[in-house]
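User: I've been trying to design a sequence by hand for this structure and keep getting stuck. Would you show me what you'd pick, starting by listing the structure so we're on the same page?

Assistant: Good idea, let's start from the same input. This is the structure you sent:
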């Protein structure tokens, strides 16, 4: 129950932030492109990885990906483009 409330609250905050950003961009007459901040700081793998874990660190930010072994990790430009 708590996790659901946290997810709903986080979603509401993110949507409010994006709406404010879009409104400010419209008022300034500019275009805003949104991308996941995590993928700006640490992107998915460029090439196929051995195993089903991937870790990347950029300064204080770190990202870890874990995938089922029968599926594998996304890699290359197409998965990064789809997420963006």
């Amino acid at each position: 129950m708590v996790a659901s409330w946290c997810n709903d609250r986080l979603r509401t905050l993110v949507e409010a932030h994006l709406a404010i950003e879009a409104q400010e961009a419209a008022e300034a007459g500019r275009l805003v492109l949104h991308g996941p901040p995590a993928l700006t700081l640490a992107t998915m793998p460029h090439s196929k990885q051995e195993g089903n874990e991937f870790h990347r660190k950029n300064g204080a930010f770190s990202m870890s990906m874990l995938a089922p072994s029968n599926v594998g990790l996304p890699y290359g430009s197409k998965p990064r483009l789809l997420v963006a």
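That's my pick for every position. To get oriented when you compare it with your attempt: The mean pLDDT is 76. The chain is about 45% helix and 15% strand.
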